[in-house]
Amino acid sequence: MNLRLVHAILILLSAALAVVFGIWCLTVYGRGDGVANLFAGVAAFAVSCGLVVYDSWFLRKTRTLR
Question: How far apart (Å, rounded) are the C-alpha atoms in residues 7 and 13?
Answer without folding.
Answer: 10
